[in-house]
Amino acid sequence: MPLKLASACIAATLSWLAVGAWPFEPVQMAAYAEPAKNVPANHPTLNQAKRLIDAGQSEEAITILRRFLGTNPKPDLLDDAYLLLGAALFSGQQYGEGLKYLQQLQTEFPNSEVIDRGKLMLARTHAAMGNPDLALPILTGLRTLSHDDITKREAVHLSGELYLQKKEPVRAIQAWLDEIALTQGDQADEIRAHIRELINDSFDKKTLDRIREAYPKSFPGDLAALRLIDLYVGRGEDHQAVRQIHQFLTNFPTHPQAARSSELLASLQTRLKSHQFLIAAVLPLSGKLASFANDVLSGIQLAVELNGDRAGGPSVGLLVKDVEASQASFLDDFSSLLADERPVAVIGPLLSKNLPVMAELAERARIPLLTPTATLPNVRRLGSFTFSTALTYQSQAKRIAGYALAELGYRRFCILHPDTAYGREMARLFAQDVRQHDGEIIAIESYKEGESDVGAQLKRMKAEDLKKYGLAVPVDPTKTGGKLTKLDKKILYTPGFDAVFIPGRASDVGIIAAQLNFHDMKVPLLGTNGWNAPDLARTGDQSLDGALFVDGFFAESPNPAVQDFVGHYKKRFQTTPTLFAVQGYDAGKFVIEAIRKGATSGESVREYLTAQQDLPALGGPAAFGQDGTLNRPLFLIQLKRGRFTQVD
Q1: How far is CA 458 from CA 105, 183, 322, in A?
Q2: Handedness of CA 58, 64, 67, 71 (dihedral sign)
Q3: What pLDDT, on the 0 to 100 scale, is given for residue 476?
Q4: Are 548 and 524 in contact (CB under 8 A)?
Q5: Domain end: 202, 217, 247, which one?
Q6: Is residue 15 part of a domain?
Q7: In the listed set 161, 180, 202, which residue is the last one of a domain according to the structure?
Q8: From start to end of 308-460, where are the E strands?
């Protein structure tokens, strides 16, 4: 066998050792190997080394190849020798040494006929050493530039395996689909079978969703969609299964599994209609807001499932509609849902801008609409059937200002807010509440989100304070004679205000706190739920110790109801609930409680929600105000020694 062909066969033989997960026979690869040199390099030593490597005797091959290189062989033999030695060292797991010879091959013989095989072995060596990020660029080059089909196919395949190791399954699958394009017959079928096996056995829901989205109307998106349907049915999430089947039938109307999926859809819809009462969730579950919408849906779903676990309770089903308000059919879809399904209540939408039109339709149908997240104030002006369980700007400002004034005895405040619509509104509402309770705002300053230096704003705050209550005196005011030192000239500033209100992001608060400390403005800090992020607690900055903020949910609250909810949620969804999940949970629970207390229609649910003063909100008894907004108990959270703790 010409040595060039032998070298290609060796690389093909060893190529599967790095991954060990693909069932192709090495002898099949040799048929596609690169052509031999014009003058075959039939050197006895190289042929012997090749035979030893094929026999698994890598140490013996390494020994004779090193001796061969010590004889200063002719240049036209060196490229073969480097590749063989790299292969032998790879086989013997001496990866670092192997890299040296494979890199020499690249440097000294860039135009060699074995250069691509050397690059492939180099990539495999990096991969075997646990460095996929070094291997992948080499493989990308081979996939693009190599003229040898077998080398290109091996590079594509290995790329897929490395992407899978890096937990990038969509890129792995795309690599294998590219490999199918380079393959024929049984081997292409084997690749498809491998993808099918991974989807059926190895991937979780999140990965399946990503695959389905990447290939919405082609293989293997159909397999991912079918697997998701099976998962949802197995977990009793009929609403999710129904939604998934609708998408599958739209994207794959002639699929072999279309008939079976249609039968399953009919069965699930019949089961859903068997419930005595229906709650509809109308949320953008597949758009840009999908992550938030799915959090809300998980909260609603948990409320419905926990009701089902209670003996003797009414039968309540959850009807889910994935509705994007920007779609032309949105109004027709929502109107049809209200008219045809007649739910006792609708939970949605997410955004304030979508609320007016949905509220108008709900009012006409006389079905309560509970938005779990829209922060639009006074939703009752949109109709008597509109309610909000969202954490509003007003409720946060009122709670933190009220606690600071009534419980802590603070009277004077400065405000430093982000220059955003949210920041400006929170500053206005906080100042309004403070003044209504005879407090005083000394100064209001703004900053750009992400701004690293707010020194100018703090100096202006200090100047305003010094005009009223602040004090500025020398460090030693009694010293009148003698030479004044640098320390003697230092002015000691004592703030005349009690606290600074910062309704900003956690990432900005840490920076601002340190600068307040630097400017001798060592006063308590007050904030809003934007502070509730683990990074703020982990800063370890003493200037934040004692800082206080407000939020609608605190997962670590000692409140038994909160801990019970968190436990159920983690068990059901394998993650910690968010505020959005809580607001969806409360909305669902309120409607279910109305049904348990005798409500049988949308009108009677509305009457219950309007009149009840002790609705079972997660944080404690709550009630909807005249503006339709839920007056829920909020959590006061303090940062102490690098940990968040509940104050009340």
Answers
A1: 63, 67, 47
A2: negative
A3: 59
A4: yes
A5: 202
A6: yes
A7: 202
A8: 316-322, 345-347, 369-371, 386-388, 412-418, 440-447
Domain range for 146 is 3-202
Confidence bin at 563 (pLDDT 50/70/90): very high
Is 404 within the bounds of a domain? Answer: yes
pLDDT at 484 over 60: no
Token pair 């982000």: residue: 418
CA–CA gap between residue 372 and residue 588 (Å, rounded): 10
pTM for the whole thing?
0.71
pLDDT at 89 over 50: yes
Alpha-carbon distance of 396 to 637, in angstroms, equals: 12
Reported as a pLDDT band with limits 50, 70 and 90, residue 34 is very low
Instruction: For 205, list phi and psi in degrees, rounded to 5.
Output: -60, -45
Half-sphere exposure of 639 (CA within 13 A, CB side): 29
pLDDT at 20 > cutoff 60: no
> Residue written as tokens 């108008």?
360
Average pLDDT over residues 359-380: 95
Is pLDDT at 351 greater than 70 in this prediction? yes
Give the rounded distance of the alpha carbon of 511 from its chain centre: 25
- Two structure tokens written together for 58: 């890598």
Q: Identify the CATH number of the domain in which residue 122 sits.
A: 1.25.40.10
Collapsing DSSP states into helix, strand and coil, what is residue 41?
Answer: coil
Residue 488 has pLDDT above 70, yes or no: no
Residue 473's domain is classified under what CATH number? Answer: 3.40.50.2300
CB atoms within 10 A of CB 112: 20
CA distance 243 to 254: 18
Burial of 144 (0-12, 13-18, 19+ CB in 10 A): exposed
Closest by Cα among 292, 283, 196, 288 to 240 = 283
pLDDT at 35: 35
Among 24-33, 443-452, 493-502, the range scoring the smallest mean pLDDT is 24-33
Nearest-angstrom CA–CA distance, 586 and 553: 12
